[in-house]
Structure formats: C-alpha cells, structure tokens
Amino acid sequence: MKKKKITLFDIIVHIISGFLLLIVLYPLIVVLSSSISDPALVATGQVVFLPKGINFEGYKAVFSDKEILIGYANTIFYTVFGTLINLFVTVPAGYALTKKNVPGRNFIMTLFMITMYFHGGLIPTFLLVNSLGLYNTRWVLLIMGAFSTYNCIICRSFFAAMPQELEEAAEIDGCNPLRTFVQIVLPLSKALMGVMVLYFGVAHWNSYFNAMIYIKEDHMQPLQVFLRRILILAQSAMNMEEGGEFAQAMADREALIRYAVIVVSSLPLLIVYPFLQKYFDKGVLIGSVKG
Amino acid sequence: MNKKKMNTKKQGATLKSRMWKSRYFYLMLLPAVAYVLIFNYAPMYGLQIAFKNYKVSLGMWNSPWIGFRNFTDFFNSYSFPQLMKNTFILSLYQILVGFPIPIIVALILNELKGGFKKATQTILYAPHFISTVVLVGIITTMFSPSQGVVNTLLDAIGMERIYFMGEAKYFRHMYVWSGVWQGMGWSAIVYLAALAGVDPALHEAADIDGATRMQKIIHINLPTIMPTIIIMLILRMGQIATVGYEKVYLMQNDLNVSTAEVISTYVYKRGLINLNYSFSTAMGLFNNVINVTMLLIANKVSKKVSGSGLF
What we know:
The structure holds 2 protein chains of 2 kinds. By secondary structure, chain A is mainly α.
C-alpha cells in the first residue's frame, strides 16, 4: 500500500471545508439553542451559541397552538397527496418519452420544453384557476405544478439508461407496456423514485406563495402561511415599533414560539434527506443536465 | 434520395398502426399533456389581456383591445427605471456571486476523502431543505437590531447596531449572500456528479509528469466539467429577469422597498393586490420576453465560443 502523505494542500482544503461547515451550521445551531433557551435571554440577544436557561416553553406553546397544528396537518395532507399526483403525472410521461417509435414524441417533448422558458405568468394563471372554480379549494394546492418538465427530463434520462432486455422479455411474454412499466420497470427504479419523492415532497412542504394567493380561509392554509405570519409579519411589526395592542400581542406570542416553530417545521425534511442522499449524489441527475 | 422517399412512404402507410401500437404510451403521456395544455398553455392564451383593457364584467374575450398601451404606460411610469435597475442589479449580483461559488465548493469537496467528505456534503445540503419562509425568518431574527446575534457581536466589538433588514442599502447583500448560504452545497451536486466522470488515466499521466494537485484541478478537473458549467450558465441566463420573487417579497418592508422592489414582486402587487390585471399581465409578459431573449442570446454565444449549446 502506498503511504499517504498529508500535504499543505490537504491542510488548506480541510481548513476551507471547515470554514464552510461553520458558516452553514452556525445559524442552525443558534436557532436550535434559542428554541430551548429562556425567551427573555433570547430576546436580548444573549444566546449566541449554546442554550442558556434551558426550558421547553416554546415547544409547549407550539404544540398547543391551534393555528400551527392545523397548518401542520394541512401541510402533511398537501405533501402526501400532492406528491402522489406529481408522480402519477410526471413519471409515466418520462418513461413514454424514451420510446423512440411513438409518433409525435418530439412534438410532445417540445410542448413540454417550451413551458420551461415561456409561461402565461401570474395573472393569466390566476384568472384561469378562478374560472376553473379551483380558487379557495384544496385542489389548487394539489394540482398546481403537478407536472414538472425538469423532473420529467430526469425521469426520461433515467429510464433511457435502463437495460432493455427485461422489457423486451416481458413484451414477448405478452405483457402490455402499461403492465411492464408498473410491474417490471418501476420496481427497478427505486433510486429515481427516491429522488422524485424528495424533489416534489420538498416543494410541497416548503411552498407558501400559491397558498397565499389562492387560499382564503385559514382552515385550509398550510404551515408555511402561518409561519410567515409568525416569523416575518410579526417581526417587522415589532421592529418598526408601530406599537398597538394587536402588534404587541402578536410580538409576545411570536417571541415565545418563533425558534421552536422553525425547528418543528424544518426537522422532518432535515431528518429525511440524508437517507436519500445516496440517490441524488450520483448518477440520477447527471444525464438530465444535457436535456 | 430514392431510398429516403420510400422510407417516408412506408412510414406514412404504417403511421396509423404505429400510433395504435403506441396507445399505451399515449395513455401514459395523457395526464402530463392534459396538465400542460390546461395549466401552461391556457394561461398563454390568457396573455392577450396584456393588449386589452380587461374588465372582469366583460370577460377576457369581450374586453376591448388597446394595443400596446399597457406596455407604454409601464415604460413611461415613474417606477419603471427603478424596477429595471433593481431587477438587473440583483440578478447580476446573484449570478456573479452565486454561480461560481458552487463550482468552487464542488472542486473542494472533490478533494476530500471518505467519511469526512460525505459528512461535509450532507451538512452543506441542509440549508436547501429549509423553506424560504423559515430562511427569511432566520435572517430577520439573526440580523434584528435588538435581539439578533449579529448585532450582539457588533456591539461586543464596539460597533454601532445596524438594522440590516430595514435599510435599503443592505438589501441586495442580504438577499444574495443568504442565497449563497442556502444553495452553495445543493447547487454543487451537479458539478460533483460531473467530476465523478473525470478520466483517472488523465490524473495518472499528470502524476507521472509531476503535476501538483492544484495544477490537476485547473488543467484536468475544470476542463472536464466545463460543458456542465456552460449548460448551467445558459440555463441561468434564461432566468436573468426572474429573481426569486417569493424570497424578495418576504424580505420586503416599507423601509427597504426602494431597492427591494423588482418586476415580479411589482407584478404581484399591481395585479393581485391593486387588481390591475391587464397592466400587470403586460409587465409579466415583458419580463418573460427578456428572459427568453437572454436565453437565446446566451445559447448563441455559447455555440459560437464553445461549440456546444442547449439547443
């Protein structure tokens, strides 16, 4: 075995990496520490690294806050069913586009590609959603963005790189393409499905804008909309010292739960993605870049 | 020539049967095509209201045509120069800083080994999974003048406290660098995957020639991922007039709006808050046309310079 020497180059590379890790981790650590610290100490800026005056009042308040619980339940609903719709619409399309002898394949591909660069924009889309009767319904958050050209191209590249023999064998055995896809191809596509679930799931979990413009009633709002009220609107009201009883009440509630609610809302994704990392680190994405 | 003609004839004759044979594949494409036609192409048809004086009571079809008046109104409005300036400065700043950093991060990560490499990657990806709302919430808190960590530190070294989110001159830095924080790891993935394709034989040959690791990065690794870099850059250019309006909108307040108002946030406010549908649609269309133009230009330049492009 060759003996590895630690060079100056190695040291520099590790110092830079350490620096990057520090930059990324520091804000996350401060948030986590603040979430289990005494709110009074947090409010005066005394928690700069480790928690001080440990208490869990913030978490207690989060888990007894009706708005947050409703938002959480709604977000889970939108994420689970929205992602299922995403997969149903996007993945089979990606598979079909690998079949070279399907007439009109290039036309459909072009139809999809154009939507990546050119779109009707906010208002025409808004008017359309209105005219379809989707405004202020849960459907709008499930359906909007059901198809993603970018993800479809990732699927296509993945399926195109799969060996054809199994599919051919299935066809000889009298399987129709639909059955071949569901019973032979999909079970071999765990890596792709992992990436797709992650991409679509994260998008649903984290989106707020569509809910803000299309959903009017609070009982249908996802978590991010409530988070916006707690984290941003209350904070700017406080900083601008516009005062008023309402602003003060909002600020008090906000100060207590802001860090805990950040942790509670972000933790699910931060726990899940490392398990899927092996899928998105290599392979699955590389073919997609070329389009 | 003759052969080709015969082929097309044969194809023509069997087109029906080929389509029938493909029926299951059409079925698989159906949901996607239906979605795209309804939610992407129908709104494009709706773009006509940019050239109309749209009235809800009259409907899209019966509202009167007014030509380019919405556009000229926009170009002549007092906010137009400011919006253009804000949009382009923010976007260029973002590209200038946000585009090279992930490449550098990937080159560095590629030099790490084993468990430390994997752990570093995992941690650098983390901010990508934080929502925009939470990200802006974290920024607002950390940079808050009274309770923020940053100001506590400034205070400790004897400097003035600064209300970062409330001053127009800090907005662009806050926006761009928080974006770097969130995206530098995740955006490096595509380059890391490309770096996995570097031919080991090249490195062995370079070793024999006595190349340093820095030289290998510059003369082997970087050229290998150059096609990926170019494609990513072209794609990025096609979004030059689109700044992440969701994040900009969240970061805006009355105090920083003079630098924080960009075309897309203005489209939202004029359209859905003030209900100027036609005017807002015209602005959105203008924005989109700039994007497509930039994409086409970038693609053309890339084809001339490097011989490869997106299409």
